[in-house]
Amino acid sequence: MSALMKEAPRLVRTQPLMELSGLSKSYGDVRALDDVSARVYPGEVLGIVGESGSGKSTLLRMMNLEESPDTGSYRLDLPELPEDLFALDRFERRMLRARRIGIVYQNPHLGLLMKHSSSGNVAERLLVAGERRFAVLREKAQVALEASEFPIPRMDAPPIELSGGMQQRVQLAKAIALEPAVLLLDEPTTGLDVSVQALVLDTLKRLQQERRITMVLVSHDLGVIRTMADRVMVMRHGRVIEEGLADQVFQDPQHNYTQQLVHAKL
Amino acid sequence: MSLSELTGRWKAFSYGFLDPSAKRELRRKMIKAVAVPGCQMPYASREVPIARGWGTGGLQVTLTLVKPASVVKVIDQGADDSVNAASIRRFLSRVSGASETWDTLDATLIQSRHRIPEERLSRDQILILQVPNPEPLRGVEPNMSTARQMHADADYGRMWLQLYEQMVRSGRVMLGASYPAMVNGRHVMTPSPIPRWDVKKLHMAEHLTILSAGREKRIFAVPPHTRVEPLVFDDVPYKVEDHANLTCARSGVTGYFMNEIPQEDGSAGYEVSDSHFGIKAIDARDGGTPTVGQTWYKNGELA
Known about the structure:
The structure holds two protein chains of two kinds.
Chain A (H helix, E strand, L loop, with lengths): L2 H5 L10 E10 L2 E11 L4 E6 L5 H8 L7 E6 L13 H11 E4 L3 H4 L6 H11 L5 H14 L16 H13 L5 E5 L7 H18 L2 E5 L3 H7 L2 E6 L2 E7 H6 L4 H10 L1
Parallel strand pairs in A: 3-7, 3-8, 5-6, 6-7
Antiparallel strand pairs in A: 1-2, 1-4, 8-9
Helix pairs in contact in A: 5-6, 5-7, 6-7
Chain B lengths: L2 H4 L13 H16 L5 E2 L13 H10 L5 E6 L6 H14 L2 E2 L8 E5 L12 E5 L13 H9 L4 H14 L10 E3 L3 E3 L6 H4 L8 E6 L4 E5 L5 E3 L27 E5 L5 E5 L2 H11 L11 E2 L2 E2 L1
Parallel strand pairs in B: 2-3, 2-4, 4-5, 5-8
Antiparallel strand pairs in B: 1-9, 6-7, 6-10, 8-9, 11-12, 13-14
């Protein structure tokens, strides 16, 4: 190595916050994921698009440690975590989910207790993480609900009495209550009317800009992905067929399927 | 050929009603329950000559522990003289030859429905609580398999959430009986439907408590000197029933758990719930010299 090279300053290379390598998963004869790898960098929004059955939700469930692959590994660049998170047992996964990973489901019934109060739904996350002071639970629940632009006078109303958009805001408040390292969004605006969709996306964008929350957004709606994502991963038949910066993928799609997808949308 | 010809002449083949294999099953599960305080142990619950839900769980434990030298006390919501308590006590005495008593201090085995006596229990005594619903997670998780997994993971966030919801809606915890308690810092149990007044009597107690649900086929235990801590928020203290200043209309004692007796004019009268403790108090008031043990509560406060 030359002297010049030895003295050259090292380039600062950002480590990925989340790194999934070689994930494969089969359900019987159906190959849901086939050697999928993904990296998510701190503060970015990774959009995952694909048709129904392409494996994007399975991938998100693995990111949330709800499921394990047949092969593959998962690393989160956080202190005191093992090299492969799939090695964690059920209890450790639950604690990691409670403290470091937030998720918003497409269907609020999956993420919320519909008959408990909205503030209670947010408090549940804090309780699982070990908070035992009632006053602190109230305060933190209120702060999280305010951040997700939920009307505070209704903070003790049960989600079953709320509109779809409000239910998604409760889910969002629950997800961000503990300042997660990564926020997973599984079709968060699907089923909402366009005006409410826009409001929820505005909230997500504001949160992302203010707090630099790392997000993984799964959607089949290219408009949503285009609005939110910095990078895009296109999936089909359990494989990643194209990946790149959002502008690049949308303006100059390389794969035939991505071209069809983009043109169909346009 | 008649049935009597087919079967042998009847004779008592086992002591204390239960057959040896049933007793062995109960003993093994009781030992396990003592080894892991507060953890529910499934067991093969047998038929006994009372209906499910009337104390079959407690009765099977008592029948397993009883011996001729035992002194048995049975209480039903504090009363020694209720039909259910009297029937069970007489049955136990008849099948085992054990002595019967109403006095807490004399008893070696105390089978109880919904109360713990007011006089302190000693290390030589065993309290057997009848439990209608042993699963504290039932209200928050109806699926039994999931509930058992939650116990295994010590996943009790939803229990606290239940308390949070009550605080939000009512400004206080609304659980009157079956108040969930953490045993030995690990398992949450329901202490059977004893009032909140009694839950703290289990904390670091001298005696062994065995809780048994015959219909649900579950046994759990609180060994002596074991922590039993009601689930509470750090900033919302545990409260017992507001009975500290109530006075028993019959015995005149104050500062114990009372039964509320509706009066004809719409008001309420009170009498001490532990019936034999009340009898002792009446005896003392009338000039007798009954032996009254140390009580858990003094002047309405836990001593």
